[in-house]
Specification:
The chain is mainly α and 155 residues long. The protein has helices at 24-27, 40-54, 80-93, 95-101, 103-108, 112-121, 132-144, and strands at residues 7-8, 12-13. The chain has a two-stranded antiparallel ribbon with strand order 1-2. β1 and β2 form a beta hairpin. The longest helix is centred in the N-terminal third of the chain and has 15 residues, at 40-54. The N and C termini lie far apart (43 Å).
Amino acid sequence: KGSGNPTIGYGHLIYGGIPFRDERERWKDYLVGGSKTMSKAEAEELMEEDIIEHSLNGKGPQSFKNHSKVQLNDDVKLTQNMFDALAHATFNFGVINLGKSGIIDAINKGDYKKASDILRVTRTGGAGNDLSGRRKKEAAWFIAGYKPESKPQLG
């Protein structure tokens, strides 16, 4: 479960109670008590849709620049590893939470270590939903992608 909402397939969150994003009717046959079981092919297709949505249309490392909730400065360059780590985390906690987390602010200031540190503790979950291991891996993945020669630290 994510935020009290059910998930299906490979972690697709079924949003409910959000007027523009209520998916309960679309997926009701696959939820508990429903009449269908999702096939591997259906789950993979849904995962592909989610990856495209959560990676901001799959446009690669610079695609975060154009999202209204995530404003990267024009001079910011993310390596593929940095982007992949952010996309992986964002798939789980959402692009709005990425924007609120302080990660993007740290990246815009060139403080990739701070961005990694924030990522490590962002939305680690509550009781029974501890995602700290996942966040630690994503933070390590992100900072491993930083190449000092590509963007010098100022100050």
